[in-house]
Amino acid sequence: MAISTVSNNEDKNAPSKREKVIFLMEKHKPLFEKEGVTNPKFIPRMAYKHNGELIIGFYPKEMYGEQDIYTEFCSRDYEPEDPERKLYKWVFNPHYETEYEASEPHPTTGDVRYLIPVDELIDVEELHKSVESNKQTEMFEDFVDVSADVPYDSMTLRDFAAIQWKKPVSHKKWLNELITKNFK
């Protein structure tokens, strides 16, 4: 019986695992720049339900180096599963061996994975939107101390006259002081 040695050109031309990971990573380059990481630990993973909780798993050899891990949800073949292609970050936890459940050992290799709840992952884009929003708010607050100011709709006709006439005739002491100091 002869064994066919016909090769399948599709398999030879198919991208390698490494090429697929690099392709997935490329989309997230702007977020890695915002994160300030030039060589991110990027490990795409399939998210799945375990005991009613959505989780991903990492092997101990992937968690070394006390480095945060970036991930995107994808299939075993490294095809994106999330249409939005979100980038997530798991912040390194030095106590992962005791704080996370370990999977059953693999029957052949004996390797275990630590099961990380998806709820603990940080959506990197949302994180940076939040940071940018806070920076804008802080920048605005540098110009106006909201807690020390009075809303415009609290101005009376008398206050308006005091400002227009540049005379301290308001019933608000602080406004009269401003007028006196600035219009001598």
Annotate the secondary structure layout.
Layout: H1 9-13, H2 17-27, H3 29-35, E1 41-42, E2 48-50, E3 53-58, E4 69-71, E5 88-90, H4 96-99, E6 101-102, E7 114-117, E8 122-123, H5 124-143, H6 157-165, H7 173-182
Parallel strand pairs: 1-4
Antiparallel strand pairs: 2-3, 3-7, 4-5, 5-8, 6-7
Count of structural domains: 2
SSE string, helices as H and strands as E: HHHEEEEEHEEEHHH
Overall pLDDT, averaged?
84
Strand order of the largest sheet: 1-4-5-8
Strand content: 5-15%
Largest sheet: 4 strands, mixed
Q: Supply Rg.
A: 30 Å
Number of helices, where a helix is a run of at least 4 consecutive DSSP H or I residues = 7
Q: Can you give the helix content as a percent range?
A: 25-40%
Unreliable spans: 1-7
Q: Count of DSSP E strands? A: 8
Structural class of the helices, strands and pairings?
A: alpha+beta
Q: Looking at the structure, what is the overall shape? A: elongated
Describe the 3D structure.
With 184 residues, the chain is of the alpha+beta class. The protein folds into two domains: 12-131, no CATH class; 150-184, no CATH class. Helix content is 36%, strand content 14%. The chain contains seven helices and eight strands. It has helices at residues 9-13, 17-27, 29-35, 96-99, 124-143, 157-165, 173-182, and strands at 41-42, 48-50, 53-58, 69-71, 88-90, 101-102, 114-117, 122-123. The strands form two sheets. Strands 1-4-5-8 form a four-stranded mixed beta sheet. The chain has a four-stranded antiparallel beta sheet with strand order 2-3-7-6. A hairpin with a 2-residue loop joins strand 2 (48-50) and strand 3 (53-58). The chain is elongated, with a radius of gyration of 30 Å. It starts with 8 loop residues before the first helix and ends with a helix.
